[in-house]
Amino acid sequence: MKNIKNIMLLKFYFLASILILSLNSCSNDEGGAFGTLAVTGISKSVIDDPLVEGDRKVDVPTDVINAGNTYIIRGSGFSSLKSISFNGLESAFNPTFVTDNAIVIAVDQATPYYNEMDEMKIVTNGGTLNYKVKIRPPFPNISGFPINPNPGDIITIKGEYFLRPVVNFGTTSVEPISSTLTEIKVQVPSDIQYKYLSVTNVSGTTVAGQSFGSAIFDDAYTSLKAYDGLWNASDGYNTAYDKDAKQGTKSIQWKAGGWNGLYVGIDKTKVDITKYKAIRITIKGERSGTVNAIVNGNYGAVFSLTFKSDWTYLEIPFSAVGNPAELTEITFQESGNFGGNTLLIDDFGLILK
Questions:
Q1: Beta strand pairing status for 303-307 and 289-295?
Q2: pLDDT tens digits, residue range 297-309?
Q3: Which one of 86, 109, 136 terminates a domain?
Q4: Where is the signal peptide (predicted)?
Q5: Which domain holds residue 231?
């Protein structure tokens, strides 16, 4: 999911560069004269419902600004832009993406939207323009939910911007039991394995990056784990570390000695490996470093993972570790070559094909 979003962003900036070059060319043809400060239209850079295949469009006219999204403001008199703000909060702009006739702007995620004036303010060397436009919240942000729930369970989805939320398990819509801007309680329907959670608010839809049933660790080891342990029992090992987590509220803390290992056996009867393409893991180190990943004890196909001192999302493609026919064990070996490291591990599981 993250890679897809990054590719889309790169494609958009390529499009924006072409747009800016085109508009610069037009300005030069007109002798470089700059127009009166005015807004003639607003377009959203990308329209793409993640629940609908093949509906992606770019440069789509709109009369609504959603915080956290990118827009093209068209008009005149923008070339000496000093600032642009939405409901009183300035959004940073890249001068490369500003001409006299267009501004390409990523609206700040923190832009206020509730009981505000619904106003865009453009300030240039030539003057100030206050322009009325509807300002709405960002798309939902899903920060945590039980990844391996059972049908009938009542679960809590945590995140932000849950304004009039609609919750889907795959294509099955479920009415929330209760909801606030940061939490939704719902009852899990049947037949959710290999499907994704999505939340839609008044602005759009966000799909969680983890499919149901794919977690090996999610606040605790799940039933996919058969056994676990350390090469060196003197290493610190806390599987309920509650001071820091990426997904949910708890993570694994491993105080790894240099070149020591942590292994997790997988119950192969509960994992249909034909459904998955990779292992996912998010790691945070006391120091930036590396760990080796060994799948099913295959030391002929060791896969190195590099992480930072903040949460780093990583993937281990099965194609890079021998294309195993089944999954029985995953081992991580500290390999920073500086005498060991304290690691936090979270969001440990599998990625659907």
A1: antiparallel
A2: 999 999 999 999 9
A3: 136
A4: 1-27
A5: 215-352
